[in-house]
Amino acid sequence: MAGIGESWYFGQPKSKTSKRNIFLSPLTVALLAEHKKIQEEEKANAKRWSDYNLIFCNRKGNPESTPNLLKRHFRPILEAAGLPPEFRMYDLRHSCATLLLEKNINPKIVQERLGHSSITLTLNTYSHVTPGMQELARDALDEAVFSRITTGPRRLVVVKNIKDDEAND
Q: Which of 64, 86, 108 finishes a domain?
């Protein structure tokens, strides 16, 4: 399903990676199951229902119009989450990628979840996340190397900067 302006249409995904499986948390699965129960009740009580097997639809089973989706569902969620009203649905995608990368999730996994055709696209798009990751990489390397030194004296090797020596001459 894709949207053009305020309209939706059913069609083929844009690329091979657009159609994919995404692992959901148990909490998300439980919330979706509860949503489905409510939807089944609405379906049973509806005079007319278009059964497109949609997770989110209007009270007749049809795709929700963009203005209604924003007004009735998305904006109240933004407000409850303390997010600015200018936040767009597409920003959720960027937020997902940023949060996952900040949590040190392998970029390949992030690429697959987003449906990017290449990891290069993911890394180029979200490279702004990486500055704080340099410190994490440094600390991880220190832990990997120095946590293995458990016995014997530890020696600190100091490497002098050649330019410092030349400045003292």
A: 86
**Do both 70 and 105 map to the same domain?**
no
pLDDT tier at 63, thresholds 50, 70, 90: confident
Beta bridge partners of 7: 4
d(CA 58, CA 63): 6
Contacts 24+ apart (CB under 8 A), 96-101: 97/122, 97/125, 97/126, 97/129, 98/126, 98/129, 101/126, 101/129, 101/130, 101/133
User: pLDDT (tens digit, 9 = 90+) per residue, 115-167?
Assistant: 898 999 998 988 776 667 778 888 888 888 877 665 555 555 544 555 555 55
